[in-house]
């Protein structure tokens, strides 16, 4: 969510590697980002070194303040115009700082409209230098809540639409999927303690849903305007446009009010839409991807070297290019969180919300497995249960769960290549010898080691049952609100991989 996701988007690292794990200090925000010098080696600097003009307008991450003296490296030689606290989340009267100069306030104007006007001006400036490629990030706040810091806490209020859009979607309601405010709730930790939402709470959530739809209409107009301007400047056919976000959002699912700090589908499944040269119109990809895939994908499209340190491959979006460094897509990635959960627009806070999950998607399967800091576990088969209604952890065969435990144990501390191919960590290649090169002893190595185990389907071979049963299991020591590797241990009786 928020800051951790945005840092992953630009660094190509999972949160346990960049360690920006919250949205506010000391474990998150721009303060943590700067203190760890994360702008020294990330996508903007790699593009800058290749001759790109990097430009940014709108929300960056929390904590960009009026006292900021220097733009992040990679955005320090062109146009850097972030929204500045405490007005990052206000829809009217936005405040910007151009290249760390004096603040400019736009009284009475709508934030997305200001960003739209400025974006067109920046595009026109960039069009004058046809020999230099550019990166241009346009980041309006919508449909995020308005956020106010009142001295004693954080106040969330529904997003504010532009006045011209206030009349739209008057009858819209949150889709009543099976997981919306369900009668039965078997969830672990704090989620399982929630009562059903009242009629007044559901009505308020429907109103918030409408406000989110309304606030996005100006963003929709912005996107249309950008495309038309690129076309006017004869740059559309030579430009890749990416549309994505930092996190999903739940409204009433699993009895939760409004928020985004869980591993459930509504919070983690986000749009990633791209158009540009070499991409077939209407093409859909089933590739498993996260924010960490973004830098490799951009570098791949730009025909630039992709650092081996990245935690993810590029997404195979072009018809004529394979995935960087791999002959098949990654099928597993981690979802990790360390902090409280809170229900926006309420005072409710829940401490036991630290968890690690493995998301696994392949031919015929779509799975989510989560270990909570409370010691509780949950497992969903999204092919059979797309709305994650029934936790089938207790009814699932231990031999199957042992495979998921092994993956989670690798992904929780993975870096670079081990994130991209966790199966190779579990089944490393053992040097051949006259006694072992022609057979597999069921230990995960040998002839049928790394080369033969590339997916869950491969790993489910019964000859590996004993091997997986003996592998270490992961557990938290306690529910901390920050990442501390010593708090994430191997369960008693096991050893590290």
TrEMBL record:
Basic and acidic residues: compositionally biased ranges: 440-453
GO molecular function, one term: glycosaminoglycan binding
InterPro entries xref list: Alkaline_phosphatase_core_sf, Sulfatase_N
Domain Sulfatase N-terminal as annotated: residue spans: 1-303
Coiled-coil stretches noted in the UniProt entry, renumbered to this chain: none
Region Disordered: start-end pairs: 425-453
Sequence similarity: Belongs to the sulfatase family.
Protein name: Sulfatase N-terminal domain-containing protein
């Amino acid at each position: 969510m928020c800051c951790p996701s945005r840092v992953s988007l630009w660094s190509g690292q999972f949160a346990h590697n960049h360690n920006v794990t919250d949205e506010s200090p000391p474990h998150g925000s721009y303060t943590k980002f700067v203190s760890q010098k994360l702008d020294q080696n990330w996508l903007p600097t790699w593009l800058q070194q290749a001759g790109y003009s990097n430009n940014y307008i709108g929300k960056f991450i929390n904590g960009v303040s009026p006292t900021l003296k220097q733009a992040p490296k990679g955005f320090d030689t062109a146009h850097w115009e972030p929204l500045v606290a405490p007005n990052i989340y206000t829809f009217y009267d936005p405040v910007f700082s151009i290249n760390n100069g004096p603040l400019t306030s736009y009284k009475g104007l709508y934030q997305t409209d200001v960003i739209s006007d400025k974006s067109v001006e920046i595009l026109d400036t960039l069009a004058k230098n046809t020999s230099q490629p550019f990166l241009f990030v346009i980041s309006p706040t919508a449909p995020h809540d308005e956020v106010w810091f009142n001295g004693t806490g954080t106040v969330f209020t529904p997003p504010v639409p532009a006045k011209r859009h206030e009349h739209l979607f008057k009858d819209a309601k949150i889709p009543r999927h099976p997981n919306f405010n369900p009668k039965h709730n078997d969830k672990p930790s704090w989620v399982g303690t929630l009562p059903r939402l009242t009629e007044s709470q559901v009505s308020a959530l429907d109103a918030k849903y409408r406000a989110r739809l309304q606030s996005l209409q100006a963003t929709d107009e912005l996107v249309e305007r950008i495309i038309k301007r690129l076309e006017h400047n004869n740059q559309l056919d030579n430009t890749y446009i990416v549309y994505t976000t930092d996190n999903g959002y739940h409204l009433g699912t699993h009895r939760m009010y409004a928020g985004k700090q869980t591993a459930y589908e509504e919070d983690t499944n986000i749009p990633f839409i791209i158009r540009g040269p070499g991409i077939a119109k209407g093409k859909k990809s089933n590739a498993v991807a996260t924010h960490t895939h973004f830098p490799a994908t951009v570098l791949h499209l730009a025909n630039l070297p992709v650092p081996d340190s990245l935690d993810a491959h590029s997404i195979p979006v072009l018809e004529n290019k394979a995935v960087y460094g791999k002959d098949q897509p990654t099928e597993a990635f981690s979802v990790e969180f360390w902090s409280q959960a809170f229900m926006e627009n309420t005072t409710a806070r829940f401490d036991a919300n630290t968890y690690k999950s493995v998301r696994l998607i392949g031919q015929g399967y779509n799975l989510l497995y989560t270990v909570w800091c409370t010691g509780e576990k949950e497992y969903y088969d999204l092919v059979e249960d797309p709305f994650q209604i029934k936790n089938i952890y207790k009814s699932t065969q231990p031999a199957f769960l042992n495979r998921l435990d092994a993956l989670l144990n690798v992904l929780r501390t993975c870096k670079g290549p081990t994130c991209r191919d966790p199966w190779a960590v579990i089944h490393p290649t053992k040097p051949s010898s006259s006694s072992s090169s022609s057979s597999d002893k069921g230990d995960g190595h040998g002839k049928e080691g790394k080369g033969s185990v590339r997916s869950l389907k491969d790993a489910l071979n019964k000859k590996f049952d004993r091997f997986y049963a003996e592998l270490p299991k992961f557990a938290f020591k306690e529910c901390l609100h920050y990442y501390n590797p010593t708090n994430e241990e191997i369960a008693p009786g096991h050893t590290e991989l």
